[in-house]
Write a structure and sequence with these properties.
4-stranded mixed sheet; 2 helices; 35% helix
Length: 82
């Protein structure tokens, strides 16, 4: 059995209105996509040892309350499932 090597990082995140919009990573720091796609991206990385992500929504043009609703509806529970 391998040793768990947790890692974390910070991303600028542009959360698009369409929750199924494809997730795209630019320059390893700018992540753009829909909430479901972002959840799938982070869930895959969690299986590789991701333990935390700092999300900076500065590039997102959507109202922050909509973004937080999408995080709550599509991301938090999905990413934190074992």
């Amino acid at each position: 059995m391998g040793n768990w090597h947790p890692f974390g990082y910070q991303n600028f995140v542009e959360l698009l209105p369409d929750p199924d919009a494809p997730c795209q990573l630019y320059n390893r720091i700018y992540l753009r996509g829909g909430a479901r796609s972002l959840a799938a991206f982070w869930k895959k990385q969690r299986q590789q040892g991701l333990s935390h992500v700092i999300v900076n929504l500065k590039p997102t043009n959507r109202p922050i309350n909509e973004c937080l609703e999408d995080f709550n509806k599509y991301i938090f529970d999905q990413v934190n499932q074992d």
